[in-house]
Amino acid sequence: MDPSKTFEPKNEILDAPLHEIGFEISPQKITGHFSVTEKWCNPFKVLHGGVSALIAESLASMGAHVASGFQRVAGVHLSIHHLKSANLGEIVHAEAKPLNVGKSIHVWEVNLWKSDNSSKLGNRILISSSRLTVKTIMVVPEKIKDAAANLIKKYAKL
């Protein structure tokens, strides 16, 4: 099955929390933005590095899930470089793109950036750069065959 031909936008069903904060999901990339709130900050009022890692893993895993034809996937390695900070109240943009879509392994790159408001050009300032290796074509155990139906019921409150 070629997911790029059969994909219908189902953002709300696929990942309700990502949909809630404005992310668009497709087999080729996932893009979106969010505002840095107090819940997402460390004690110094900047975006917590763990949140950047959470966003990276979520975006890449969801992208691999869609690109693999909605198969069960699992992240096996995450590498993240924290380059700059994002302060409380700033808008952070995110984009995940596949670097390699293999039969059983995908590699996704996820970049988070903020806008440079001091520049007339509106340049991007890279906050973090990540790579996630994802295992695909995983067998779904018999006892959790109905997990897809229950997936919608689980909402993360970020």
From TrEMBL:
<keyword id="KW-0378">Hydrolase</keyword>
<dbReference type="InterPro" id="IPR003736">
    <property type="entry name" value="PAAI_dom"/>
</dbReference>
<comment type="similarity">
    <text>Belongs to the 4-hydroxybenzoyl-CoA thioesterase family. DHNA-CoA hydrolase subfamily.</text>
</comment>
<comment type="pathway">
    <text>Quinol/quinone metabolism; 1,4-dihydroxy-2-naphthoate biosynthesis; 1,4-dihydroxy-2-naphthoate from chorismate: step 7/7.</text>
</comment>
<dbReference type="GO" id="GO:0005777">
    <property type="term" value="C:peroxisome"/>
</dbReference>
<feature type="domain" description="Thioesterase">
    <location>
        <begin position="45"/>
        <end position="117"/>
    </location>
</feature>
<dbReference type="GO" id="GO:0042372">
    <property type="term" value="P:phylloquinone biosynthetic process"/>
</dbReference>
<comment type="subunit">
    <text>Homotetramers.</text>
</comment>
<keyword id="KW-0576">Peroxisome</keyword>
<dbReference type="Pfam" id="PF03061">
    <property type="entry name" value="4HBT"/>
</dbReference>
<dbReference type="InterPro" id="IPR006683">
    <property type="entry name" value="Thioestr_dom"/>
</dbReference>
<comment type="pathway">
    <text>Cofactor biosynthesis; phylloquinone biosynthesis.</text>
</comment>
<dbReference type="InterPro" id="IPR029069">
    <property type="entry name" value="HotDog_dom_sf"/>
</dbReference>
<dbReference type="GO" id="GO:0061522">
    <property type="term" value="F:1,4-dihydroxy-2-naphthoyl-CoA thioesterase activity"/>
</dbReference>
<protein>
    <recommendedName>
        <fullName>Thioesterase domain-containing protein</fullName>
    </recommendedName>
</protein>
